[in-house]
Every structure is written in C-alpha cells, then in structure tokens.
Amino acid sequence: MSNTIYLGYYFKVEPQQPAVEILIAELGYAGFESFVETEEGVTAYIQKEEWNQSILEDIQILNSDEFEISFTFEEIEQTNWNAEWEKNFNPIVVDDACAVRAPFHEKFNVEYDIVIEPKMSFGTGHHETTHMMIQHILKNDFKDKSVLDMGCGTGVLAILAEKKGAKPIDAIDYDNWCYLNSLENVERNNCEHITVIEGDASVLGKNKYDIVIANINRNILLQDMATYVSCLNKGGMLFLSGFYNDDIPIIKEACKNLMLNFEEKLERNNWVALKFIN
C-alpha cells in the first residue's frame, strides 16, 4: 500500500462567492488537487510531497480586502478519508444523464448511474475538469471503441466509457491509492472490460486506442502528449483537461505540432476540457 500522505486545508471564507471559486482556481495552480465546498468555505487537499511552507504565497485572494479568509490545516491519515467524504460528498448529476454518487446515496433515475467510493482518489465529478470530461463522454460515440484513461483517479471516466459501450479500456494511474481505488470502483459498477494499471505513460507500450482521455495537469500533459498520440489510432479522439483557459494556447500548439486537429472546447469556472482529432 502506498504511504501517500495528504494535507487538508480548511478555509473559512466570507462572503463566499465569488471568493471560493477564485480560491479553488488559485489553489489548483499551486498544486492542490481535490476540493470540497463546505458551509463555511472550502476544504482543499494536497499531497504532502507536493507541499512546501510557502505554498500559499502566490494565492493572491488571501491578500484581498474584499473577503475575509482564514484557515487551519492538518495531515490527513488515509484511514480517515472515508469519514471525510461521507461528511462532505454530495451526489451530482451531469446533463440529466449521468449521476455520480457514493454507495450510501439513493439511486438516481438517470441513464448512467455510477457509484464511487472516492477515498483519497481524485475524480468524483465535483471538480470542474471531471464534470466536463463526463460531458465530453456523454456527447460522443464510445460504442465498441478502445479507450485509454490516463490519470484515472477513481476510475469514474473509464466506468462511464464502458457504460457507453466502450471496450476494451485501460485505466492507468501512477498513484497506488488511485490504482487500488479504481479496482474497487470497477468491481462495484460491475464493469467487465476495464483493465486497471499502476504506472505512468512509460507503461503504455505499443497498445493502440480509438480514444484517449487524459485529465491530469498541464505540465504532465505537455510532457507525455507525444506518447498519448503515438497510441492513438488515425481518426481517433483525444480529450484533455486539468488546466485553465489561459493554458489553451500552449496546449493547442503542442497538439498542432503532433498533427492533431482541434475540435471542441468546454469551459467551467475557468477550467477547460478540449477535444482533438488525430
């Protein structure tokens, strides 16, 4: 079992909007990877190995005179993560078609009902990037398509891809906690065509896919883009997210250099998710 340790920052924000949205966006840039909005503000999580004492120095909204923002933080033991999520994890419904909920929530009357026990993994649908990737999957044809889900987190996108008829599917994450959590969630949703793999882009080998999904972060995407494209069949679709509107030019340039054609952009609270065709 990986010994990944997270820090939880508990922010109290007054007034909450638009401060909470701005705070989440700035924390995302700083390396925080998971957020839960609370009655008092927002809780943000970051891996301890990504943390440093000056992590909040560039969070400009903390210096704003328009809002009162205070915080405390602590180390989060993995064993406490279920309790954290049961306190804060509310179900979501995307485009009246896909629900993402925990096992303790009632079932939704939608076409795609996904049950996720998120633990410390990233990808409950609450974050803008996961939400938009779900929208992309709902809008596009996945039937009998081979799919690669890079940085699969909880496995939610791979699970939805299978529910839309994709097969076979490889779901890959370098984090052992995400790998184990994806295995659990794949089984929980009775998926039969998903292979969960622990690793990064170096494990891809010579497999080819009709669709590649990568919801990671800008730097990893730029670093591994050529590897993703080398695995993509001609005419295949590439879906990218994990970055902001301001990052689009550098992402588009990298894709253009790899002979990809830009197709569509989704935007949500300054986060974006792009579709390219090979």
TrEMBL record:
Q: Main localization of the protein? A: cytoplasm
**Record field: catalytic activity:** L-lysyl-[protein] + 3 S-adenosyl-L-methionine = N(6),N(6),N(6)-trimethyl-L-lysyl-[protein] + 3 S-adenosyl-L-homocysteine + 3 H(+)
Q: Which GO terms describe its molecular function?
A: protein methyltransferase activity
Might you report a single GO cellular component term?
A: cytoplasm
Broad class of enzyme this protein falls into: transferase
Q: Name one GO biological process term.
A: methylation
Query: Keywords on this record?
Result: Cytoplasm, Methyltransferase, Ribonucleoprotein, Ribosomal protein, S-adenosyl-L-methionine, Transferase
Look up the EC number in the record and give it: 2.1.1.-
Q: What residues does S-adenosyl-L-methionine bind to? A: T130, G151, D173, N215
An example of a Pfam family matching this protein is: PrmA
Which locations, inside or outside the cell, does it occupy?
Cytoplasm
Q: Which domain of life is it from?
A: Bacteria
General function of this protein:
Methylates ribosomal protein L11.
Family under the similarity heading: Belongs to the methyltransferase superfamily. PrmA family.
Mind telling me what this protein is named?
Ribosomal protein L11 methyltransferase
Q: Which organism is this entry from?
A: Neotamlana sargassicola
